Amino acid sequence: xxxxxxxxxxxxxxxxxxxxxxxxxxxxxxxxxxxxxxxxxxxxxxxxxxxxxxxxxxxxxxxxxxxxxxxxxxxxxxxxxxxxxxxxxxxxxxxxxxxxxxxxxxxxxxxxxxxxxxxxxxx
Length: 123
Description:
The chain is of the alpha+beta class and about 120 residues long. The chain has a single domain (about 5-110), classed as Winged helix-like DNA-binding domain superfamily/Winged helix DNA-binding domain (Arc Repressor Mutant, subunit A, Orthogonal Bundle). Helices cover about 55% and strands about 15% of the residues. The protein has four helices and three strands; from the N terminus they run αβααββα. It has helices at about 5-20, 25-35, 45-60, 80-110; strands at about 25, 60-70, 75-80. Helix 1 crosses helix 4. The mean pLDDT is about 90.
């Protein structure tokens, strides 16, 4: 299934903040985690991730430091700042509202039996 660009873009910030809420990470590992979390359905590119990380850094939500990789090559590591933790908490609240509204719409359409309300996939 191809996930539309609008939905991918809308989910990008909370997804990255959530991944970094679990601990410091670097670009390639974030890309791998997104793919893993979505069972391969979300395939982000460097061209999408790095501008987002730089924007989050400019906003003060993410802090970056350089470190060495196992191969010895420098690698930029990202972690949530205190402001980033607050932004992540706010994003979670907002997405909970959106998710609940969508589940209600789907439940109404399906006569009260939304597959998402039951933890499944959409029909």
